[in-house]
Every structure is written in structure tokens, then in C-alpha cells.
TrEMBL record:
Its EC number is 2.8.1.6. Homodimer. Residues 59-289 form the Radical SAM core domain. GO terms for biological process: biotin biosynthetic process. Its cofactor is [2Fe-2S] cluster; [4Fe-4S] cluster. [2Fe-2S] cluster binds at C119, C150, C210, R284. Keywords: 2Fe-2S, 4Fe-4S, Biotin biosynthesis, Iron, Iron-sulfur, Metal-binding, S-adenosyl-L-methionine, Transferase. This is Biotin synthase. SMART domains: BATS (SM00876), Elp3 (SM00729). CDD domains: Radical_SAM.
Amino acid sequence: MSDGIIAATMPHATTTPVPPPPSIRTDWTRDEVAALIALPFPELLFRAQAVHREHFDPTEMQISTLLSIKTGGCPEDCAYCPQSALHEDGGVKASRLMAVETVMKEARAARDAGAARFCMGAAWRSPKEHDLETVCAMVEGVKSLGMETCVTLGMLDNAQAHRLRDAGLDYYNHNIDTSPEYYGEIISTRTYQDRLDTLSNVRDAGINVCCGGIVGMGEDENDRAGLIATLASMPRHPESVPINMLVRVEGTPLAAKDTDTVDPIEFVRIIAAARITMPTSRVRLAAGREDMNDEAQTLCFLAGANSIFYGEKLLTTPNPAASRDMRLLQRLGMHTSGA
């Protein structure tokens, strides 16, 4: 699939999408992204910093909190995910959807700890109608606390996306995970186009898009360039772009796969490429931070990452302690913001 075809596969929305600013490119090719990633490291970071400073305060970090509101039992077979019901040794037992008041208690605690965006994730292929009604009540409740809201619920049709929009949802997360060519090595129960269709429905409803991918699943450099090129050639860039480093969870297929750990410098290169190609997006340093030292995270911040998840768990995988995050930001002279 060529880069031009990747961009064209996003279905046409039923309403006219808001165009990106004239200065923001949405036609990045895989070869262009690969050339960026291959730049000498000092030059790559200089370019990323220049773009970052043009659009953001380089000393500011957005803080978000992520809560699993329904864990395990997912019918999908994503090779990295311990929540799949098909990975019997994954160790994550299925649970029911949380009660609204339980979620509200967690949201209040997150707000009081400094988070400005509250993200809720449910392990579904797609939400059932009665569950969607409950999630909408959660969105309304979190919004009443003055926080931004984000959910990830699997695939959405157009009507479901509009229901979430009417409840006040700010962001919908739905990652494309990897390049179109490597996708079939990771997931077989839903197609790449299924993911693009959901993103189109979210855009059509007027909800901001949170969409990124995972590095370290056995993909090659060309696939990593393809991931960033796909995101950067969407008709409108995702407002949030989470870049995850694979967390090997025992019992998942990727935990047993013989793949090399991603070199931290190579990971920073992906962050920098995301920043340069999607200059106004929040680039979020997401899963995998627990395995990064402070120096590696600092390089990611220098490369343009300006959002992190705060708290000791990301759905089911470990995350650095909040105290460690605050100490690092203080050492760097950075401050937090919910912008």
C-alpha cells in the first residue's frame, strides 16, 4: 500500500471536516519520515525543538490519568495485550464495567493530584448500547469536575460517536498500533480499515482524536516510518499522539517472541519524527516509561514529547510513580498544565 493510498483510505465524513492550518502538512510520505528519523541525532533534535517551540511552551508538560473502567475479557487478539480473552495465560481476569460513582471517586483523586485530563478505557471490541449509556454518564460526571475527558472503547459506529459527543466527550483514543503492512502480524480480529473507520466516525462527530502506536513489536525501521507517515498524512492530524514502547506482559504472544528491545536513542528518534510531522499535536510519552531512566525520558521531552500519563498503572501495565515524575519535572525546571 503506497503512502498516497494510506491517506486516501480514511472514509469521507458526512460533515465537512475542519481543515488543518495552511502551514500544517498532511501529505508526509514514508520516505520523507524515514529520512527524518535517519538524520544525525543533534540535527534531528534541533529540528524537533524548533518545531516544538513554535507551537508550545517547551517547559510545560500536560498531565493525564488513565483508568481501566472495564478490564479483561476482550475478544480481540492483539498480540501485545493481556486483556485479550484469547491469551489464556495473560493473567488479567475479566471484570464488569465500573459503577459511575466509583469512577467519579477516581476522577476526583486524579484532579486533586494535578491531572487535567481523565482517560477511561474499556476492554471491548465495541460498546453495547447499555454500556455506552453508562459511559456517557461517566463522561458527564467527569466533565462536571472541570476535567477534560477521553475514552477508549474499541470500535464505534457513527451514531455511537455522536452519543459520546452529546455527553461532552473531548477526546477518543483509538490507536492504529503500527504500519499498515505490519498490522497483520499483530492483530487478526479487526482490520486496519476498521480502525480508520472508527477514527472517521469520531472526526465526523466533532470529537478530538487521540491516536498513536507502539514501538518494539518486531517491526522494522520502515514500519516505524510507516506508522508516523500514516498519522501525519491523515486529513487532520490527531490532537493527541501517544507513542508507546512495548511492555512485554507474560502470557501474551509478544512476550514470547524473540524481538530486540528498542534502543532508547531510536525511540527518541520516533518521538522527534512525530513532533516534526505533527507540529500542533500533543505527543504523549505513554506505555513503557517504567523501563526508561530519567535521561531517556528527558531526551524524549527535548524531542517534543509534551504529555505523560500520571499514576502507577496504565490500564494493566506499570507506570512510574507520580512522585518520580514530579521529581524529574522539578529537576528539569518544567511545570504541568492541562492545556
